[in-house]
Amino acid sequence: MGKPTGFMEYARRDRRYAPAADRVVHYKEFVISLSESELSEQGARCMDCGIPFCHQGCPVNNIIPDWNDLVYRGDWQAAIEVLHSTNNFPEFTGRICPAPCEASCTLNLNDNPVTIKTIECAIVDRGWEEGWIKPQVPERRTGKRVAVVGSGPAGMAAAQQLARAGHQVSLYEKADRIGGLLRYGIPDFKLDKSLIDRRMAQMRTEGVEFHTNAHIGVDIPIGKLRESYDAVVLAGGSEKPRDLPVPGRELEGVHFAMDFLSRNSKRVQGSFVQDADFISAQGKHVLVIGGGDTGSDCIGTSNRHGAKSVTQVEILDRPPEKEDKNLTWPNWPNKMRTSSSQEEGCERIWNFATKEFVGDDEGHVTAVRYAKVEWSKDAEGRWQMKEIPGSEGEMKADLVLLAMGFVHPVHTGMIQQLQEEAGLELDPRGNVKGVTEGDEAYHTSVEGIFCAGDMRRGQSLVVWAIREGRQCARAVDQWLMGQTDLPR
Ligand SMILES: Cc1cc2nc3c(=O)[nH]c(=O)nc-3n(C[C@H](O)[C@H](O)[C@H](O)COP(=O)(O)OP(=O)(O)OC[C@H]3O[C@@H](n4cnc5c(N)ncnc54)[C@H](O)[C@@H]3O)c2cc1C
Ligand code: SF4
């Protein structure tokens, strides 16, 4: 795999970004690719480590050493075939996956890991450029009809796999465009939306029918799909945001992150959004509450709007600068990370608990009252949070974005109808109940209804959604046909 001495000869190199000042004036991608010879060298760093822990670290179990070797040897066409054997959409993961594979790379133990994600992205981008990626139209149709509800990465992967197995697949989406959080959550500057359109064109040729503005459980009762299709896959994501019910929550200017992000992305993608509905950060002191991907996307978008200041606060401790690899490898470590959006400009504060939003006479938020907190473990080893006496303060904020994650899928509508009509079971966290192994994999408690992605596992990552969509499709095919040739 790669060049036996490559990891000793070449240092890790990765894609760079355009300068922050240049990129914050637009919504286009700003990553600068490596050249073909640089990529070949980086592929050569993959050492024949015997047990490739990266396979395990990657949720779709990408066969990473094989395509590293093929890129090193210049056989890019074979590389895209290997890559597609485990991942339907490497152009999405090659751009926005946090790359747990790299944390688990054996070279990461005492050196820097192989630039796996960059190589993945280069392989698939080259595959499209060269015209090597073609629709895989099934030779035989089964006559079975499957409905997939929700068009995020889980729904798209499930639909593509089921169509390739010869089933007639209809993909229903309540939004006006396909893609789920890929479309309206993750901003255009991190993922260009023409990539979703290109996959849709491929899927259409393979036999997937797309239905947008189709809210199942509201516009179309779920019972109708159960009558008309042989199987139904629920892939509606985890859309109920975690709220912050402190005094002043009702003030104008306090919004859920997704309301801010989705309306902005709609405008960027050319849809009409009324000025009254649009949430602008221009000239404002923006406070982002929550430190994850969603928070970062709010920072990048606020800076592109021309915010006066952007501050991101987090209730947890500041993570350590570096992990102790002897303790964490090959797992994903807790360590200080700086996203490209944070790099573009924002102040970051940890141990910050929001106590109250303060408003003016017109009912608009003007500030936030907070207290600093500290964390310690109790006798049973459980983390406990304590406010530091006398640490209270007030911070200016005229736009507050709540980016504290998502609690579970929205229950009103489709899920509630399935609970009432067929006894659909939820897990204790409020997600749709379903296991991932065995004869009942991805099957809900209702016969013929399957579930995958964030709607089943809770808020997660694009790469996990693709894995679940693929595996769910295999389970559906097995259930419909009594056997399946679809890969896991
Ligand atoms: C702002 C933000 C940024 C993120 N950034 C990253 C990142 O950089 N990297 C990463 O790996 N992950 C990221 N994530 C997480 C990732 O986007 C999700 O884990 C992933 O998209 C889940 O895929 P899914 O297909 O299960 O659901 P979703 O992508 O949420 O798609 C579900 C779709 O179902 C539709 N739907 C729901 N109910 C119905 C219904 N009743 N009828 C019809 N349609 C319905 C919704 O409109 C939606 O389009 C981010 C999440 C957010 C919110
Ligand atoms: S999908 Fe993510 S984890 Fe898997 S190889 Fe690509 S970057 Fe790594």
From TrEMBL:
Residues 35-68 form the 4Fe-4S ferredoxin-type domain. It holds the Pfam family Fer4_20. The lineage of its organism: Bacteria, Pseudomonadati, Pseudomonadota, Gammaproteobacteria, Chromatiales. PROSITE patterns: 4FE4S_FER_2. This is Glutamate synthase [NADPH] small chain. Pathway: Amino-acid biosynthesis. Keywords: Amino-acid biosynthesis, Glutamate biosynthesis, Oxidoreductase. It comes from the Bacteria. NCBIfam families: GOGAT_sm_gam. GO terms for molecular function: iron-sulfur cluster binding; oxidoreductase activity, acting on the CH-NH2 group of donors, NAD or NADP as acceptor. GO terms for biological process: glutamate biosynthetic process.
